[in-house]
Amino acid sequence: MVSLSLTSLEKKVLHRKYKANGLDSGQAWEKVKKMTTHLQKLVSKLKKQGHDKEEINERFKIEFYKMVEKEEKNKKRGRKTK
How far is CA 24 from each of CA 19, 20, 32, 51, 76, rounded to the nearest angstrom? Predict the structure, then answer.
C-alpha cells in the first residue's frame, strides 16, 4: 500500500512560503489544501492505473516539484496566485 502525502511540517513550510509571497494566512492555507488534494488525487489515480510504489513515489515528487516551481515563477513575475 502506497501512502504518499505532505507531512505537517511540509504543509507549515508551504504556508509560510505563501505568506511570504503576499497571501494572508487563510489564502495560504487554502493553497496548501488545494496542493494536498491535487497530490492525493494523483496518487489515487496512479494506484488505480496499477503503477508500482517506486513509480508513484517518483511521479509524486515530480508533480510536487512542478507545483513549487510554478509558484516561484509567479513570484518572480510579481503575481499572487490563489
Answer: 6, 9, 12, 38, 18
Give the pLDDT band (50/70/90) at residue 3: low
Please give the angle made by the CA atoms of 32, 38 and 44, to the nearest 5 degrees: 135
C-alpha radius of gyration, the chain, whole number: 14
State whether the Cα torsion 9-13-18-20 is positive or negative: positive
Comparing CA positions, the residue from 20, 29, 10 lying closest to residue 75 is 20
C-alpha 82/C-alpha 48 separation (Å) is 30
pTM, two decimals, is: 0.80
Distances (CA, A) of 27 to 3, 36, 61, 74, 77: 27, 14, 24, 16, 19
